[in-house]
Design a protein that fits this description.
about 220 residues, alpha/beta, Rossmann fold, 7-stranded mixed beta sheet, two-stranded antiparallel sheet, about 25% helix, binds S-adenosyl-L-homocysteine
Length: about 220
């Protein structure tokens, strides 16, 4: 991705510094750190914000939404890929497509769903620009998952519902993992839910702050 490596505040040194911060915060997977280093986050935000693209913070992407904080993207990705050979991953909440492009580098195929069409159109342009050919996306309400391609080895959710949507549990493969923030603003937990032969196992991995998961679609 050298054509996108950038200069000054988007330079390799700036990206390396972000990776160092993530290591200090507990991210251990070198595979994940390398992908974060090599993925041009500045292309996913407005040009006016590109000098801040490698700070470890969420940034506005329009439509009252944000690009996820790099630490959270790394944490969710690390938890999803651990010890797995992922074939099919579902993402709910494409947003600007940053997490999608990161995850696309760890799975054979990724399916992503976004309810705001203006965001999805921009994300699709990025997927083309970065030549990501293993991403399939649709404009829909992610509360119902994407039955057509189920079951998924992993499901990653970038917006917080009050409770875990049943459809997402149903669309997990056996031994598949669902990573999802759950709860009201100010009181959210990031859950790692694993499907067992019978039932599900649940683990809290962090306290988090995501935008709420809404119902229906926007134009
Ligand atoms: N990982 C994304 C995060 C975007 S913020 C990024 O880095 O850009 C969360 C996104 O979830 C928003 O774009 C929001 O519109 C979307 N979202 C919220 N509720 C949704 C739903 N029910 N179905 C699909 N997308 C939803």
């Amino acid at each position: 991705m050298t054509a996108h490596s950038g200069i000054g505040m988007t330079s390799q040194r700036t990206r390396d510094r972000l990776a160092e911060t993530l290591v200090e915060m507990g991210i251990k997977s070198n595979l994940v750190l390398d992908v974060i280093r090599n993925t041009p986050r500045h292309l996913f935000v407005d040009e006016a914000l590109s000098s801040r693209a490698y700070e470890n913070t969420a940034l506005p992407i329009g439509f009252s939404q944000t690009i996820s904080q790099p630490y959270i993207v790394a944490k969710m990705t690390e938890a999803l890929i651990k010890g797995k050979d992922l074939q099919k991953v579902l993402e709910i909440g494409t947003g600007c497509g940053y997490q999608t492009v990161i995850m696309a580098q760890f799975t054979k195929q990724i399916y992503t769903v976004e309810r705001i069409s203006g965001l999805l159109m921009r994300a699709r342009e990025q997927f083309q620009k970065l030549a990501c050919t293993n991403i399939r996306s649709k404009h829909a309400d992610g509360n119902i998952g994407w039955l057509r391609y189920a079951p998924f080895d992993g499901i990653i959710v970038a917006a917080a519902p009050i409770g875990v949507p049943v459809a997402l549990l149903e669309q997990l493969a056996i031994a598949g993992r669902l990573i999802i923030p759950v709860g009201k603003p100010g009181d959210q937990k990031l859950l790692l839910i694993t499907r067992k032969e019978e039932g599900f196992e649940e683990e809290i991995i962090d306290s988090v702050s995501f935008v709420p998961m809404l119902s229906g679609v926007d134009t």
